[in-house]
Amino acid sequence: MTPESAERIAYLVEQLRIRNIRRHIFLCADQTKPECAPKEEGRASWKYLKKRLEELGLTRAENAIYRTKANCLRICHQGPIAVVYPEGTWYHSVTPAVLERINQEHLIEGRPVQEFVFAENPRGDSETDTADCGGGAHT
Fold it and tell me: pTM of the predicted model, to two decimals?
């Protein structure tokens, strides 16, 4: 990496408060081939998530919440689908109303919205994290 690139990245890390990220939500929205939910539903959820995180001041807070739009999270059923890290909490049926609950209860207060959780796998909390690295069938 050139010194200029390193300087630019360091600047972006500070500007975007990368070191302050407390949680990160990935939302399956605006898919190339929508299978889990109609494209309009995913887009509406994404638009709502972006707007509300900004309104709540969470995107640049001391303990920031980051968001990423994913083309597909591979659970092509009961969408839109979302996953929140570092807890590894997976949600189904993530409409704007459900996102408001996720924002308030999980992202801010730290309590997953169990009514919509279908799986949990905290990072590094799985025995298969390293056990399957050498030849298991992964798709």
Answer: 0.82
